[in-house]
Amino acid sequence: MNWPQVSSPFPGQQPNEKIYIETRQHWMVLAGRVVTWVLFAAILIFIDWAINSYAPGLKSSPYLEYVNLFKSIYLMFLCLGLLIIWIMYHLNVQIVTNERIVDITQNSLLHHTISELHLSRIEDVTAESKGLLQTFLNYGNVYAQTAGETQRFVFDRVPNPAYIAKIILDLYEQLPSSEKQHKIPLNK
To answer: Is the pTM here over 0.85, yes or no?
Structure first.
């Protein structure tokens, strides 16, 4: 089957390797983290309200400078938190090529892991959507089962998991028989 190809290169990409899927977590995962961030941002509004209502003495010198310093530092950490949320979302990526699956996981700002699985080592691929929200918004997990060290390769909360699983299975079926290590029962 002819699937659309993505053209952005990734670290370690081979010259003859074609990217078929480049996916990140569903936007709902990012939205959940941003909502949590907004709750922390609301604390700044609450601090202003609390000072005006219960401690108007903090609005005069010398206390005003300390309050403004605290709010400035808090705002700086809020901006840093939003930047970290975006970086972690953007740099966690799963890539499916005609030869392998690559999982780039950004664990923290200075620590990332790159795992790869050759398509010929796949034994089973499973797509899973749990609950009302995942089913309604069409996102969930994709599991690629192997017999190797990494027992299960997980695409965590990605959009359209059934489509991703289908592409992986189709790419596996396109491999020459000599490269395939296991026969996958296709559930079509």
So the answer is: no
